[in-house]
Structures are given as C-alpha cells and as structure tokens.
Amino acid sequence: MRSFFAPFAVVLALVAGASFARADDFVLALSWTPGFCATLATPDAKPECAPSDASTNALLSLHGLWPQPRGRAYCAVSDDLIARDRSPGWDDLPPVPLQDPALEQALAEVMPGVASHLDRHEWIKHGTCTGWDADTYMRTAIALTQTARATQTQRLISKAQGDTVTSAALCRALEADFGPGILKAASLKVDRVGRGAQRRAVLVDLRIYLRDSGSGLALDSAHLAEGAASLRCTPEPLAVP
Questions:
Q1: What's the rounded Cα separation, in Å, for the pair 30 and 209?
Q2: Which terminus of the chain has fewer Cβ atoms in its 10 Å neighbourhood, N or C?
Q3: Which of 38, 12, 17, 79 minimizes the C-alpha distance to 214?
Q4: Where does the signal peptide begin and end (predicted)?
C-alpha cells in the first residue's frame, strides 16, 4: 500500500479561526505495547494486550502527541465530555471526528490502543489543545511515529524483545539517530513489576520533546526541545517483554 505520509518530516497546517493559541512545544509519547501490557494487573482487560500480530508488537506504537506545557488539556471541551473521559474506560466517548477515512486504518496500524479507544481519549484531552483539526492532529502523530519506526533506536528495541536493554544502549542509539541534543530532549517511562527476586524494571514509553519553530514539526535534530527533559544513561537492564 502506498504511504501518503512524508517519512521524515511533516508540515503542520493550522486551523483558521481557532479560539486558542496553537501549541509550539509537544511531547511525542511512544509506547512499547508489550511493556505497557506487562505492567497491568489484568492485561486481558485491554484488547490491545491480547495475542496479536508479532510484527505490530515488535514496533514502537503511538501513545500520544501532547501539547505543552504539562496540564494544557481539554481545550473547549464540555464538562460532560471531560467527566466521561476521566471515567474508567473510553467506550462512551464520541469517535474522533476524522474527515479522511484513510486515517482510521493508518491510525490503527500505529496505535494498538485504538482497540480501547485510546484515540478518542487522546483527541479529547490533548488534540483539542493543538489548534489543529482532528485530521491534522492524527496525521501528524502518525507520521512522527512512522519516522520513529525507521530508526536505529527501533531496531535496538526490537532486537532486545524477550530480553533486556540498558538505558545507556538506548542513549547511544538515540544519539546516532538524532544527535547529542536528544539526551536533553527525551525521557523513558519505566515501571517496576513483580516481587522479590522477580522484580524488574520494564520499558513502557519513550518520550521525545519537540518544538515547532514556525516551519512545522518533524522528528529530527532540528526540532528537539533541548532542555525540556533529561535522559538518564545507565547500565541498569530494562526488560523488553
């Protein structure tokens, strides 16, 4: 199937007449879905944690694209929708108002959480604060995720699946992909699971802080929001389920 996304850069269209300022800084949150599922007390409760295509589980997936600063959320969203979003499960949220039908399939390919309506939550809470329409928001997030999947970092994580990787090794791969600035523009979400001797640190998310300087947003060294985060590069082994 022909991809309609630019693999390494995407220019963002702005929504005319938006009632709030567009975002300039973002966090691209990329999940390692098997790691996320390993942290759940009842993984069967999440459809995306059921056995699925191995190739999908060996790729970073889209968690979200979050406008900054932290806490910027639910822009022009009704109290009723906010309450529904904060309730357990997102089945009661309205579908994302996409105009391009092709985006639905493309989104499902990079966001396994669509099975749990994660896309609805991300649009309601975060997408509404970007100043973009739903198509622009999701198209941008999809393209950034596709770029992340074509990196040495992705290959390192995929190769480590079923074993461990150190954050130091991840730092080296990220530097090779994006330059030294990434160490001040990225963070890892690591959760600890198990008890006693079985307790282990599990890789859950890779979060990259990006800045739109006015020319658009892309996942490359020129768009890193350096100073927004600090990546710890240690020899601690991280489990990669």
A1: 11
A2: N
A3: 12
A4: 1-23
Instruction: Give the pLDDT confidence of 31-77 residue by residue, as tens digits.
Output: 999 999 999 988 888 999 987 655 556 899 999 999 999 889 999 99
Residues 6+ apart with CB under 8 A from 148: 28, 30, 60, 154, 206, 208, 219
Q: Any alpha helices (H) in 87-241, and if so which ranges? A: 102-110, 118-125, 134-148, 152-160, 167-178
Secondary structure, 3-state, 203-236: EEEEEEEEECCCCCECCCHHHECCCCCCCCCCCC
CATH fold group of domain 25-240: Ribonuclease Rh; Chain A (3.90.730)
- Determine the residue type at 224: L
User: What single-letter amino acid sits at 135?
Assistant: D
Q: What angle do CA 127, 98, 129 make, to 5 degrees?
A: 15
Cα dihedral: 67, 214, 132, 206 (round 10): -40
User: How big is the chain, counted in residues?
Assistant: 241
Residue 33: closest CA among 112, 121, 131: 112
Question: How many other CB atoms are found less than 10 A from the CB of residue 41?
Answer: 6
pTM (2 decimals)?
0.89
The phi-psi region of residue 162 (left if phi > 0; otherwise alpha if psi is between -120 and 50; otherwise beta) is left
DSSP conformation class of 10:
B
